[in-house]
Automatic annotation (TrEMBL):
Residues 367-429 form the Ionotropic glutamate receptor L-glutamate and glycine-binding domain. Disulfide bonds join C671-C726. The record marks R607 as: Interaction with the cone snail toxin Con-ikot-ikot. This is Glutamate receptor. SUPFAM superfamilies: Periplasmic binding protein-like I, Periplasmic binding protein-like II. One of its GO terms (cellular component) is postsynaptic density membrane.
Length: 842
């Protein structure tokens, strides 16, 4: 400074730049600051940049940091909702505060993790401290990641996670750093798997190749301006800005000399008191601001606030794939004025699906995949909910497919030697492109294949047979308890006896000629007839008897009404209870055996949760003991159809996918099955693909569109209708629609009627026999006439058509004639004499 300074150029960090900025402002020395990030990490905004003023003597050669804006637009374009951010130890995490605020406003789930300098030790520590399920969840998180780190650290980190199998070919990582050279791009692509997107700063070149190495009448070294030259590729961005800054100052000095507005350099000192600022500093600052240069960083110029507004980013990307050394293509560009220019969606892939033929492997499972018709000599046609979803995707994306059933008819599980069988095995061995059925998404399967987003929720259910209604011939007696029936019978006998006694103690006054027939038998018959609301023929005229009968009729009315109402309820409502209403109830009991399909997702879920010593669930432990009896062969089946058949025709409970069981119960002909589920959709059904499949994202995007516009719900209602005649959740054999009462409900009534008819016939037979036997002992008229004695008071047996009047003398010694004279017709009309049997006294 003692010799004089025209301008100050610095390439340092933000902390040191603050001191130089204070010095430049105090001494009026133009300060051209070139920000340099430590150890090649991404830049963070310096505090002084955001508070730049027009009168400041510090000019910011490097443009402001726009990494937050770029990465946010890239993530939005990819429609990410969950991802993790890895950052270097040397990176200032405060640089992405704005980005985190934007993602939070969009509802994104973003995690942060710092990458230590010793990456191998960090990865080893995670394997040592994390449990298996935690590693699976962490591995799922690594499928989408953003890396804020230097290219060297990014290479080491990618190499380590690939070698430790923490990422698979379905991962998609974004690396953002302004300081990514072409050589870094090639090495990163070589070391990574899956899909890779790189965001770096770029510098537009002149379209005229002959003018690329000419900058403001100054020719640049060819090795520096040719982008294909290895030396130019190795040149750091910071050094490029240093070169252009020196070139800008040289042009400014030359212009000052030409304009003859040169101010001599003053000797400046911070120690000497009374040292004054440079008088020509303001003029030099204005000249630098007004100037500009086309250098290695394209156009270098400053705005009123002293910052360089010219910055451009390019976004490079690869497609999914397991082949290393893949090509990189330029997907889009970004600048502060126009934003994202281009699209990150692979349109070429979508267009290429028209004409693509996919080989689809499946497992038959109602109602997801079924054979619609099987004609000998013709290809099989398939139908089902999953087939409808696949057809909807095919119609939109334009591809065709060929479908076949897995040879072993299994979904797939990992064997002892590490290989996979079933549907998953077909994809692992690349014999199929797509796996489709009632296939659930599990962490174990995701480790070897890719899955689309779920197109239907999944939960575990139980299929059971409804309790059969037992035939009770005396169901008509069910409304009242046996003790109540006994009380009613005793009440009938008691009231009948009381009525007889009351009538006997105070006999009624009958009209002349009437004969009282009040007996214990008649009283009982009258009480019973009034109880069943049929009445009786014996009159009771005394006040006490009528009071007794009035109370009895009220009692009978209440009892009969209660019986009628309760009988209707018993005949229309089934009150059979079932003890199994949930998975917990099924696990607690041991009387009813249950099982599932071997080597299925349900089988693996029960086994993993029942045998895990760290997170052992009592319910799953009990279920595993039942399912694993005799090695699993006793209670488990090979196919779901076999399990459904065991439930329908035996004592068995089948644990399987709730959606499949609901379809079976809905379409059961006699509605004899019902389901019990846990109602917790912790998983889902997805479409499986090979690892690194390029079709996964576009399949997932189309599935989300089907769910959003309601088409997926329409497809579900086709196979799971809401107006099913069967009740899925009722443990008794009932239907939702009203059903007529059957013969079993009234069998007891008919039985009582038949018993009464038989008993009446038997009594009539005995009475007839008794009457004939008694009549055979009575002598005939001729025998009476010839016999030595005449029977007294023998009635006349001749039929009398007219009303006869027999005169009885007051004297008992007279014997009127047996033949009576008919009354005169006038007398017959005058007197109403009751017809009765007339006895003749001889």
């Amino acid at each position: 400074m003692n010799r004089g300074i025209l301008a100050l150029v610095s390439s340092i960090g933000c902390m040191s730049a603050g001191s130089l900025q204070s010095l430049a402002d105090a001494m009026h020395i133009p300060h051209l600051f070139i920000q340099r990030a430590p150890f090649g990490t991404p830049r963070s905004s310096c505090p002084s940049t955001s508070h730049a003023q027009p009168d400041d003597y510090t000019l910011f050669v490097r443009p402001p940091v726009y990494l937050n804006d770029v990465i946010f637009q890239v993530v939005m374009e990819y429609t990410w909702q969950k991802f993790i951010i890895f950052y270097d130890t040397d990176y200032d995490i405060r640089g992405i505060e704005n980005f985190l605020d934007q993602t939070s406003q969009q509802g994104m789930d973003v995690s942060l993790q710092k990458v230590e300098s010793n990456i191998n030790m960090m990865i080893t520590g995670m394997f040592r401290t994390m449990r298996v399920e935690e590693l699976h969840r962490y591995r799922d998180t690594l499928r989408r990641a953003v890396l804020f780190m230097s290219p060297a650290t990014a290479k080491a980190f990618i190499t380590e996670v690939v070698e430790t199998n923490l990422v698979a070919f379905d991962c998609h990582w974004i690396i953002i750093n302004e300081e990514i050279s072409d050589m870094d791009v090639q090495e990163l692509v070589m070391k990574s798997i899956g899909r890779l997107t790189l965001v770096r700063q770029t510098f537009p070149l002149s379209q005229n190749t002959s003018q690329r190495c000419v900058r403001s009448n100054h020719r640049i070294n060819t090795s520096l301006c040719d982008p294909k030259d290895p030396k130019a590729q190795m040149l750091e961005i910071t050094n490029r800005y240093i070169y252009d800054t020196v070139l800008l100052l040289a042009n400014t000095f030359h212009r000052k000399l030409e304009d003859r507005k040169w101010h001599s350099m003053a000797s400046l000192s911070c120690i000497r008191k009374g040292s004054k600022p440079w008088q020509g500093g303001k003029s030099m600052l204005d000249t630098v601001k007004k100037g500009g240069v086309s250098g290695l960083t394209s156009l270098l110029e400053f705005n009123d606030n002293g910052t360089n507004p010219n910055i451009f980013f390019e976004i490079l990307g690869t497609n999914y794939g397991e082949d290393r050394g893949r090509g990189v293509s330029r997907l889009a560009t970004w600048d502060p004025v126009h934003g994202l220019n281009g699209t990150l969606t692979d349109r070429k892939l979508e267009n290429n699906m028209r004409g693509v033929v996919l080989r689809v492997v499946t497992v038959l499972e109602e109602p997801f995949v079924m054979i619609s018709e099987n004609v000998l000599g013709k290809p099989k046609n398939y139908q089902g909910f999953s087939i409808d979803v696949l057809d909807a995707l095919a119609n939109y994306l334009g591809f065709k497919y060929e479908i076949y059933v897995a040879p072993d008819h299994k979904y797939g599980s990992q064997q002892a030697d590490g290989t996979w069988n079933g549907l998953i095995g077909e994809l692992v061995f690349k014999r199929a492109d797509v796996g489709l059925s009632a296939l659930t998404i599990t962490p174990e399967r995701e480790s070897v294949v890719d899955f689309t987003t779920r197109y239907m929720d999944y939960s575990v259910g139980v299929l059971l047979r409804k309790a059969e209604r037992t035939v009770d011939m005396f169901a008509c007696l069910a409304p009242f308890d046996l003790s109540l029936w006994a009380c009613i019978a005793g009440t009938v006998l008691l009231v009948g006896t009381l009525v007889y006694l009351l009538n006997w103690l105070n006999p009624p006054r009958l009209p002349m000629g009437s004969v009282s027939s009040t007996t214990l038998y008649n009283s009982m018959w009258f009480v019973y007839g009034s109880f069943v609301q049929q009445g009786g023929e014996v009159p009771y005229t005394t006040l006490a008897t009528r009071m007794m009968m009035g109370v009895w009729w009220l009692f009978a009315l209440i009892v009969i009404s209660s019986y009628t109402a309760n009988l209707a309820a018993f005949l229309t409502i089934s009150r059979i209870e079932n003890s199994i209403q949930s998975l917990q109830d099924l696990a607690k009991q041991t009387d009813l055996p249950y099982g599932t399909v071997l080597d299925s997702a349900v089988y693996d879920q029960v086994r993993s949760k029942g045998m895990n010593p760290f997170e052992r669930d009592p319910m799953y432990s009990q279920m595993w003991r039942m399912i694993n009896r005799t090695g699993g062969a006793e209670n488990n089946v090979e196919e779901s159809k076999e399990g459904i058949r065991k439930v329908k025709y035996g004592r068995f409970a089948f644990v399987w996918d709730a959606a499949v069981l609901e379809y079976v119960a809905i379409n059961d002909e006699d509605c004899s099955l019902y389901t019990v589920s846990n109602n917790v959709a912790d998983r889902g059904y997805g479409i499986a693909m090979q690892h690194g499949s390029p079709y996964r994202d576009i399949f997932s995007q189309r599935i989300l569109e089907l769910q959003q516009n309601g088409d997926m719900d329409i497809l579900k209602l086709k196979w799971w209708p809401r107006d099913s005649p069967c009740d899925l959740y009722s443990p008794v054999g009932t239907r939702k629609t009203g059903s007529a009462l059957d013969i079993h409900s009234f069998a007891g009534v008919f039985f009582v009627l038949a018993a009464g008819v038989v008993l009446s016939c038997l009594i009539a037979t005995v009475e007839t026999w008794w009457t004939r036997r008694k009549g055979s002992r009575v002598p005939s008229k001729e025998t009476q006439a010839d016999g030595p004695s005449v029977r007294q008071d023998e009635p006349c047996h001749e039929p009398q058509t007219d009303i006869m009047l027999t005169l009885r003398p007051s004297s008992n010694h007279l014997s009127p004639a047996c033949c009576a004279t008919p009354l005169d017709s006038k007398l017959r009309h005058t007197f109403a004499i009751p017809s009765r049997t007339v006895f003749c006294q001889h």
